[in-house]
Amino acid sequence: MKYLVIYAHPNPQSFNSAIRDTVLTELKKAGKDAVLKDLYDMNFNPVLSCDDFMKAQQCLAAPDVEREQEFVKEAGTLIFIYPLWWSGMPAMLKGWIDRVFSYGFAYEIKETGPVGLLPGKKAFLITTTGATEEMNRESGIYDAMSRTIDGALAFTGLEIVGHKYLPGVPYVTDEVRKGMLEEVRAAVRELL
Domains of the chain by range and CATH? Predict the structure, then answer.
């Protein structure tokens, strides 16, 4: 089974990059075939254009989107790594989903309602936050993300096998961040 790691953070020195490296290292140690899609590094165009929209209505896609869709087709598990910004994922990642998980590829509408076209694939998400665990729970952000982000991915037929939150990242000590990376290692091992 192939693993597709979709990574969205613009700073190559961020804690998210340490998470990305940890995930890739664990997959490699387990002998898994993994592909990294670093959306900022590849300068992915996240803007869903009128042309994209019209093509999707005909179950067509722009060449850059078709390439990304091929990676999704080949993957058994998608791992998303990103920070929480303004109660959601970075626009870069949202735009990737908008363009890549298009009508006719990721879902279709039948007489009985919407049907996800990516069943049999799994998704695991790792999200860093600036707020503490307590603040995230009290504000309801985890529940909101479960309904919106996880829900949107599940709409396509993906099985959400976990969503790991790493809270308070900018304000915790290096020791706490090292512990978080150990949690990531354990989560990836469990995923395998």
Answer: 2-191 (3.40.50.360)
